[in-house]
Specification:
Blueprint: H1 7-15, H2 17-31, H3 34-41, H4 64-72, H5 160-168, H6 173-183, E1 189-191, H7 198-212, E2 217-220, H8 233-249, E3 254-258, H9 262-265, H10 270-287, E4 292-297, H11 306-315, E5 323-326, H12 334-348, E6 352-356, E7 383-384, E8 391-395, H13 418-427
Parallel strand pairs: 1-2, 2-3, 3-4, 4-5, 5-6, 6-8
Antiparallel strand pairs: 7-8
Length: 429
């Protein structure tokens, strides 16, 4: 309940110390700062702690309620304003150390200058890692004679047709016999990025081939896919490191088919094409040397014209290899590929070539279907040719029955498709 006061009482109250205190509190709360409060109170702020210089709110002669309001502001330090004007000072930035913002790297990764505004210079954008291109090999392969003449090829331990033939031996004996014809010949050993321990995989196959005095046929197939956008430096370096592991794991003589379809599909032009060719040349350079019978893939006889393919092969270092491969995983006939190969060999000055005959027994599909083309047939068995032949060998680079992809009823790429392999064998009769 409110209490009424007389006019005299009101005048006396206004003159009282308590009234002055409440006026100060109202000003302080209105301004929101303890500075205003200290300016008005003036003479009452003389109770200063001699040691610390701090003004103690308890020394302002306030009652408990007023003291609580002052302490709520959290402001316990003020300047002595008696008979002086309060002037706001500019901050001294002459000796102020400039700190890097949180999003700017420190140390060697960024350079920050304290300029007149005290603002750090923006950090430089991160630079893409450079492709680690190894020195180009000085090795030059000899094209004087067929290096594969008189040699035989190694059949690796990966042989799903043999397992299928054994599984069918009792229940499907006739089909098992057909499957034996798929299982028996040597085939390409594909080296892909998904193999968990590529070094062990290569070394075990080369050691087994050496023990049998045969040549393994490795198929290098790990070039990063990037379309015409170019290969990033990280992917390129990862690929070349992978190639280095393969190189270190090889012992003895080997055949290497280099990147099927890479050059035939390299039709982007400009920097993207140049970049991919440089990466491919680095891989060729890393693998080149005596006993490394390399053949860079050149498509097939009905794909890229010979003069164009000649230029591409030269740009990726064909002189470090035996020459080029044709018809890998394709169906074009041996006759067409031989004619094309001889023409390309002459343009290159005598390079040698090999042909994949694994599925070209009756030639291509009428529509030139490439993915699991139906009603095709096994081709001629792997063999090498004479010392003077530019065609060094026919071989089964592609494993007949391994799917080209999820097309024409096939499973995923590289998966074994027994019924398709059976069809190839039956159609070869």
């Amino acid at each position: 309940m409110y209490q009424k006061h007389s006019s005299g009482d009101t005048f006396n109250f206004i003159r009282s110390k308590r009234f002055s205190t409440f006026v100060v509190l109202l000003l302080m709360l209105g301004a929101g700062t303890i500075g205003a409060y200290m300016t008005v109170v003036g003479p009452r702020l003389r109770a200063v702690d001699e040691q610390s210089g701090d003004i103690q709110p308890s020394s302002l002669d306030l009652d408990a309620e007023e003291l609580a309001l002052v302490e709520q502001t959290g402001e316990n330090e003020v300047a002595d304003t008696d008979d002086e004007d309060v002037t706001e000072q500019e901050p001294d930035t002459a000796n102020t150390e400039v700190s890097a913002p949180d999003n700017v790297p420190s140390g060697d990764d960024a350079s920050i200058d304290a300029n007149d505004s005290g603002t750090p210079n923006p950090a430089q954008p991160p630079q893409e890692e450079a492709v680690q291109t190894p020195p180009t090999s000085t090795y030059t392969a000899s094209w004087a004679t067929n290096a594969l003449a008189g040699r035989s090829f190694y059949l690796g331990s990966h042989n799903p047709a043999a397992a299928t033939a054994d599984a069918w031996r009792t229940s499907r004996p006739a089909d098992a016999a057909y499957m034996d014809t798929v299982a028996a010949p040597a085939k390409g050993i594909w080296l892909v990025m998904g193999i968990s321990n590529i070094s062990s995989y290569v070394s075990s196959n080369t050691a087994a081939a050496v023990a049998q005095e045969k040549l393994p046929i490795f198929v290098l197939y790990g070039m990063p896919s990037a379309g015409c956008g170019g290969v990033g430096s990280a992917a390129a370096n990862n690929y070349l490191s992978w190639v280095d592991k393969i190189d270190a794991a090889i012992s003895g003589d080997v055949v290497i088919i280099v990147e099927p379809d890479e050059l035939p599909l390299d039709q982007c032009g400009g920097s993207a094409e140049t970049g991919r060719e440089q990466i491919l040349k680095s891989a060729v350079s890393a693998l080149a040397g005596p006993g490394r019978y390399m053949y860079i893939d050149a498509g097939h006889g009905s794909w890229v014209n010979a003069s164009t393919m000649k230029q591409r092969l030269e740009r990726v270092g064909v002189e470090m290899t035996q020459g080029f491969s044709l018809n890998v995983s394709n169906y074009t006939t041996t006759a067409v590929n031989t004619a094309y190969g001889n023409n390309l060999s002459a343009l290159l000055g005598g390079a040698h070539f090999v042909i994949d005959t694994s599925r070209n027994g009756i030639g291509p599909d009428p529509t030139y279907e490439w993915c699991n083309a139906p009603d095709r047939a096994l081709g001629e068995l792997p063999q090498t040719y004479g010392a003077g032949s530019k065609l060094n060998a026919t071989m089964w680079v592609k494993y007949p029955g391994e799917s080209d992809g999820s097309c024409n009823g096939g499973p995923g790429e590289g998966q074994w498709w027994a019924e398709y392999a059976l069809d190839l064998a039956q159609n070869a009769e």
